[in-house]
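User: Sequence for carboxylesterase below. Tokens please.
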Amino acid sequence: EKLLTDQDMQDDIFTPFGPTVEPYLTEQCMIPKEPFEMARTAWGDKIDIMIGGTSEEGLLLLQKIKLQPELLSHPHLFLGNVPPNLKISMEKRIEFAAKLKQRYYPDSSPSMENNLGYVHMMSDRVFWHGLHRTILARAARSRARTFVYRICLDSEFYNHYRIMMIDPKLRGTAHADELSYLFSNFTQQVPDKKTFEYRGLQTLVDVFTAFVINGDPNCSMTAKSGVVFEPNSQTKPTFKCLNIANDGLAFVDYPDADRLDMWDAM
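Assistant: Structure tokens for carboxylesterase:
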């Protein structure tokens, strides 16, 4: 029996099992209402956090596309990526779908060979737009600090998740690629000290360690680069982030903010 429908796959639901809203409110209840509603009064708003992602998070979704490549040519690809929870008419959904097509594939069509637009769309829809809303919402309702980072370390050999789990021929920084820079793993690889991979490793470990110990991610690596990693203070687009890239560190406006503006307009 097929547990996941085509619509489930379209909505990026990978498993039929997961947390649900609990029907009875008891002392042991963990999810009494929709997480979106719970977030508005979350105790986490009272603590400082560091939050972020990678530049090509959407590479992760190519795992699904490899199993069902026909999804890229499905006539409802863009319509299906308009968030299903939006209370808008079908006419409005079709209008937004056309904007998605124009933004990510203005002069071409998605395919396995032409997947960059899909990767960007999934990076925005599945990962960064939610992060973006969380970052701005915390600034609006909380005095706790929110430090935002973006990891853009594109290595030919050290982005282990992309290489081993997605496709060794692809480039970019995929979801979970940062783990190799933060923790040792079964490959036991250590980059040469003269490489950007080693500098990226040093930076991530230093930033995360400083935040854990001092509650402030500024550290020797940020100081060496002449960068001050500041908490977000914006309640409206766009936020600033620590951009950790092949060519070094910079504290900048989020580089893909124009794409998030389009999702905000929905």
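Strands lie at 49-54, 146-152, 240-245, 248-253.
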